[in-house]
Write a structure and sequence with these properties.
The complex is a heterodimer of chains A (422) and B (83). By secondary structure, chain A is α/β, with parallel strands linked by helices. Chain A is built from eleven helices and 13 strands. A five-stranded mixed β-barrel of chain A has the order 1-2-3-5-4. In chain A, a hairpin with a 4-residue loop joins strand 2 and strand 3. Chain A is rod-shaped, with a radius of gyration of 62 Å. Chain B is built from two helices and one strand, in the order H-H-E. The chains are: A alpha/beta (422), B mainly alpha (83).
Chain lengths: 422, 83
């Protein structure tokens, strides 16, 4: 991991010489110091654009300008380092401490020297890491970054999950496998980021910030930030202040998913939800589609059940209406109406009938007296007699009186059978 | 078109799922007039069917937010500041 600074630089200079040598032969003109320095600068700065160097801190100075300077050295060489004031030191740097510095080489022409422009520094060794961890934990804890009260709710049905992890690690594959199985309805926005090495914390932090800047209609509503298991050094980025701060300021809830067994990273404490592994994180943020499907089908059967029950209740109610009080009441009412109609009708009828009968009576009396007047028997009372043949047919003319046959002569008080003799 | 549909599905999944739960509990409460009940029943069964369909048809869509290819950390442009 550690580069022998002296060896590497020596190599570069050799190459430089080889490149310059033929030029010297063709052009006799000497180089100006400026142009030589510029050539050196171009070579060094393009070659060492991003290096991680291991060494011991010496002559650490925190200048009043805010910048920090030190010398990084090992047994064979040393190099000047600068750490600009705009950068965050995440631990207390000790004289003689072993560290990893990541940065680039820059050449300062006016002084003709080169140095390591450090953008991130990390303590080396378990003891130092532990101390840094504890110091940062205390600091952030006092600031309230771990407060339970500020933890945001993870959506029950996330629409889009943002994943921040290495593009090459197993974590991404593990997460996607779970999502496909449990809740393929969700959208995934993957933001690759280095999750190992000095400075990876800055990349993770930036990724979190970028996710928050995605236009709202595309922005994830939960973030999974993590990586698979590894050594304390491997996971160290998740113990860095930059990651903690980024999680803290994320508007999107963050689930930490750093695969490790014993220790809990600083990121885990700040995150809204901590998952022990990337797989577990994916499970924690999604509903299980099989559970959802069975819940849906049980909802449908509950609906069926209650609908059927309601209908059967109604049927029973209807039946009780037809046999019970309800119908009786309806019928009674109808009957009483009819009855009163009937009574009224009856009354009308009887009075009409009475009138009719009276009329009829009067007429019949008149008929009676007329009949009396016309009654032949009444005439007989006055001394007349009536002749009938044997069949009871009245013989009203003498010429019709048969010979040798008896006829009846009817008087008022009886009849006499007589026979014509002449 | 299909993409839009899927998007609409995911946006409304939660609210429709909750709506269904609400309908079910309303029916469980009882004491609703038949007409209202029929309306709820119709809506509820429609939602249950639709949501199941949505789940069964879903396919995980993964997009990558491309890494911004500027330098990892913006280096200061200032020259050395040694005093």
């Amino acid at each position: 991991m550690a580069k022998r600074i002296s060896e590497t630089l020596a190599l570069v200079f050799e190459r430089e010489e080889a490149a310059i040598a033929p030029v010297k032969e063709v052009i006799a003109e000497p180089l100006s110091v400026t142009s030589l320095t510029k050539a050196i600068r171009d070579t060094l700065e393009s070659k060492f654009i991003d290096v991680t160097v291991e060494g011991e801190i010496s002559n650490f100075t925190h200048h009043r300008s805010g910048h920090r300077y030190w010398t990084l050295k090992d047994e064979g060489a040393q190099i000047s380092c600068v750490f600009w004031k705009t950068r965050q030191l995440s631990f207390d740097v000790q004289e003689g401490q072993k560290v990893l510095c990541r940065g680039r080489i820059s050449v300062y022409a006016p002084r003709g020297n080169y140095q390591l422009d450090v953008f991130q520094i990390r303590p080396l060794g378990i003891g130092a890491l532990q101390a840094a961890y504890e110091a940062l934990f205390k600091k952030l804890s006092i600031e309230g970054l771990f407060d339970e009260s500020r933890k945001r709710q993870i959506p029950r049905f996330p629409k889009k999950i943002g994943i921040i992890t290495s593009a090459t690690g197993a974590a991404l594959h593990d997460i996607l496998t779970v999502l496909r199985r449990r809740y393929p309805l969700v959208g995934v926005l993957f933001r690759p980021a280095s999750v190992q090495g000095v400075g990876a914390e800055l990349e993770i932090a930036r990724a979190i910030t970028e996710m928050n800047l995605v236009p709202e209609n595309d922005r994830p509503d939960v973030l999974i930030v993590g990586r698979g298991g590894g050594s304390l050094e491997d996971l160290w980025s998740f113990n860095e202040e930059a990651v903690a701060r980024a999680i803290y300021s994320s508007k999107i809830p963050v689930v930490s998913a750093v695969g490790h067994e014993v220790d809990v990273t600083i990121a885990d404490f700040v995150a809204d939800l901590r998952a022990p592994t990337p797989t577990a994180a994916a499970e924690l943020v999604t509903p299980d589609q099989n559970e959802l499907l069975s819940s849906l089908s049980s909802s449908a059967s509950t609906l069926d059940y209650f609908m059927k029950r309601k209908l059967s209740d109604l049927r029973i109610e209807l039946l009780s209406h037809t046999t019970g009080y309800g119908l009786k009441r309806v019928l009674t009412q109808a009957l009483s109406e009819k009855r009163s109609n009937l009574i009224q009708f009856g009354n009308t009828m009887s009075s009409r009938m009475k009138h009719f009968l009276e009329l009829a009576d009067a007429r019949s009396q008149r008929f009676q007296s007329t009949l009396n007047a016309l009654n032949p028997y009444a005439v007989l009372e006055r001394g007349y007699a009536m002749v009938q043949d044997e069949n009871g047919v009245v013989i009203s003319k003498a010429a019709l009186l048969p010979k040798d046959k008896s006829v009846d002569v009817i008087f008022n008080d009886g009849k006499v059978s007589v026979r014509r003799t002449a | 078109m299909a993409k839009e549909k899927a998007k609409a599905d995911i946006t409304s999944f939660e609210s429709e799922f909750d709506r269904l739960a609400k309908i079910v509990s309303r029916l469980e409460e009882g004491n609703i007039p038949l007409e209202e009940m029929l309306k709820h029943y119709e809506e509820g069964t429609m939602l249950a069917a639709k949501l199941s369909e949505t789940l069964k048809e879903a396919e995980l869509k993964v997009r990558t937010l491309s890494k911004v290819h500027e330098e990892l950390v913006s280096f200061e442009t200032s020259e050395f500041d040694e005093e």
